[in-house]
Amino acid sequence: MFSLEDLFCSVDDFCKRFEPRWKQQLLGSGIKRRNRLRGLSLSEIMTILIAFHQSCYRNFKTYYQEKVQIEWAGAFPGLVSYQRFIEWVPETLVPMCAYLRSCFGSCSGISFMDSTALSVCHNRRIERNKVFENIAERGRTSVDWFFGFKLHLVVNERGELLNIILTPGNIDDRKPVPQLLQQLFGKVFADKGYVSQKLAKQLLNTAGIQLITKLKRKMKQRLMPLNDRLLLRKRSIIETIIDQLKNISQVEHSRHRSAVNCFVNILGGLIAYCHQPKKPSIALDHNLLFPA
Fold first, then answer.
1. 250 near 49, Cβ under 8 Å?
2. CA gap 206, 274 in Å, rounded
3. Using an 8 Å Cβ cutoff, are 162 and 111 in contact?
4. Are 187 and 109 in contact (CB under 8 A)?
5. Which letter does DSSP use for residue 250 in this model?
6. Which residues pair with 118 in a beta bridge?
7. pLDDT, tens digit, for every residue of 104-146?
8. DSSP 107
């Protein structure tokens, strides 16, 4: 069950460690920032943004005016108007990126990889879209064309995120794989879109990672260990996670008026998923998968 207090404590503990280092880095790089006093702290702003993705609301303005300003007024005594709050949202982009990374799980040697399209507008409005001009691109899925980004992610068998990368929609799924799988080990299971002998050799030689994919229809069949064949059937775990990210955490919608706020929305949805108490998972016996 969602707990606002637990979420705030987690975010606030992170901000107490992150903010001093962040400010020091900004000073060291010569970037000047105004230190005006605000009614809400960074941790309070981030908590409100993340909690939106754990609520039943589909519109942030309605959520802020009905849920935050009325029901949570006692929890956030320094609340400001909706317009003022939206002006503060872009400043959370870097802290949200850092906090998401702190929420990642640990690699167990069994990982699942996939990507999903994040459309930012209807196809009929692509030519009129100015918010994401020169940022988003047209891409194609197995269903249809879209205009937006691709979210590439890798998870473990417990449903925990291990890494994510966001690219324009026209990027091949295989291109960001080496960066996506940095600091991972063991076996990574993916769909047919990641079939590449060159990529598989590169991962095995540079990182010791074994990329295991299904074969395309016209490819020659090859022998595969039974455990690997069974784990390929469990790849639906990441498809379930993507479905929850889109339909529960709301990482995708077409109402953005700012590219930065779009990225903050995606980060908020990913963080909200990381705080989800019960995630899709599969039971594995590592003694059988990795015999001594």
1. no
2. 29
3. yes
4. yes
5. -
6. 149
7. 999 999 999 999 999 998 888 888 888 898 899 999 888 889 9
8. -
